[in-house]
Design goal:
Length: 428
């Protein structure tokens, strides 16, 4: 590690959090990012890593995509954040574009700066519009650490120190339509789920689950909120993951990749029916930096790039290649990889135990891949590269995974204990 990286880690430990630095180092993630370029990132020593974390799916168009950088330069030359209380053409154009690409009758927008803020507003809108209190969410779901969103955190460790949180938040198992049917009634304001759980371990629900949630909400007059913050903008091979089931929510939250790796922006997108609540209350939810003029210009370019380069079809194609490769790998390491999860370019490898997540991250970083295990399910390694990835880079990733799995099983890692329960099947 060079001096610059060491100083950065020491300062971070001293002034931000020493335990975070310890945990990251133990997983080989004491990485100080320097150059960022498309699907790749370089550490402080100039080591090139294929970025398969992408800030949990935030870099769909690649890091510092040259067209996004150009749009940002142009925006900086003429704009600033703008006055948040005024209307602006950048905000209006992005709102119209989001309405255009969103499924069904989702046509109204509230901007924010981050995902948690978008979810907070979604829950406020659902409660305000229905005048009901109950929010049904899911075990291991993740929607951010802000006010309302935190109350819907599916993991106790994130919530318990801050209780009492918002009342009337009810948690049910993800993917279990019957459990949802038991929880949703005429008192329910909203059901809040991710179409595929990201932090929860890349969990794709059974076919028909989202459609059943749609029916339950419609029957009970409740609002269906789909959190597409990780799954949106082509990640799963469609603009939004709910399109795989042809389900249109009443509210959809987006963030991460909308900012093109360059700006902070999020949006809560909803129906005109729900917007009725805001007509007499236009100032009931405000955000100084949410949907800044600068960020809106960059986000418009991000959407234009996704459209003009056919990135969504490309993601579906690359996703199929990746999925086939990961399944081959699982066949090679049957005791260590129990399942390949995901859809499109949102993939997960379910490993035999929780310790393997950090140990695989460690070994992958030695093979030129930055990948981080799931926050709420450490036994699942997330694989979420930029959607601009090409087949030869997927080959590189699969080779790296094979090498890293072998190294991990032979005992290489932050701890030197080999796992006694795993063996590798000889390659055919
Ligand atoms: C599904 C989902 N919702 C919400 C959030 C929170 O977004 P932010 O960290 O921008 O507040 C995240 C962040 O990872 C997420 O994955």
């Amino acid at each position: 590690m060079n001096d610059m990286a060491q100083v950065a880690l020491d300062r971070y430990a001293k002034h931000v959090n020493p335990q975070k630095v310890r945990v990251l180092k133990a997983a080989g993630l004491g990485i100080i990012e320097s150059r960022r370029d498309g699907a790749w990132v370089y550490d402080a020593e100039g080591r090139r890593l294929l970025d398969c974390f992408t800030s949990a799916g935030s870099f769909n168009v690649g890091r510092r995509n040259p067209e996004v950088v150009r749009a940002m330069h142009e925006a900086v030359d003429s704009l600033d954040h703008g006055n948040f209380l005024l209307c602006s053409s950048q905000k209006a154009d992005l709102a119209a574009k989001l309405a255009d690409i969103s499924p069904g009758d989702l046509s109204c927008v509230m901007f924010g700066t981050g995902g948690g803020e978008a979810v907070d507003f979604a829950l406020k809108l659902a409660r305000g519009a229905t005048r009901r209190a109950r929010i049904v969410h899911t075990v291991n779901g993740y929607h951010g650490h802000t006010g309302f969103a935190l109350s819907a955190a599916g993991r106790d460790a994130y919530r318990v120190p801050f209780e009492p949180l918002m009342p009337e938040f009810v948690r049910v198992e993800f993917g279990d339509a019957e459990a949802m049917a038991g929880a949703v009634d005429m008192h329910t304001a909203a059901v809040l789920v991710e179409p595929i759980q990201g932090e929860g371990g890349i969990r794709v629900p059974p076919d028909g689950y989202l459609r059943r949630l749609r029916e339950l909400c419609t029957e009970n007059g409740a609002v269906l909120i789909l959190d597409e913050i990780q799954t949106g903008f082509g990640r799963t091979g469609k603009w939004f993951a709910c399109e795989h089931e042809g389900v249109v929510p009443d509210i959809m939250t987006v963030a991460k990749s909308l900012g093109g790796s360059m700006v902070s922006i999020s949006a809560t997108i909803f129906t005109e029916d729900l917007r009725e609540f805001l007509i007499p209350n236009p100032f009931i939810h405000l955000s100084t930096f949410g949907g800044s003029d600068l960020a809106c210009m960059v986000a418009l370019k991000v959407i234009e790039i996704i459209e003009s380069t056919g990135l969504i079809d490309h993601a579906a194609e690359m996703g199929a290649i990746l999925n086939a490769g990961l399944n081959r790998l699982a066949g090679e390491f049957p005791d260590a990889i129990s399942e390949v999860r995901g859809r499109g370019m949102m993939a997960g490898l379910k490993l035999a135990d929780d310790s393997m997540g950090p140990r695989l991250s460690y070994n992958l970083s030695n093979h030129g891949v930055l990948a981080i295990y799931s926050g709420n399910e450490p036994s699942v390694m997330r694989i979420m590269p930029a959607l601009i990835i090409e087949p030869q880079e997927i080959d590189f990733l699969l080779d790296a995974l094979q090498g890293a799995m072998s190294d991990m099983l032979s005992g290489k890692g932050p701890d030197s204990e080999p796992s006694p329960r795993v063996r590798r099947r000889p390659q055919r």
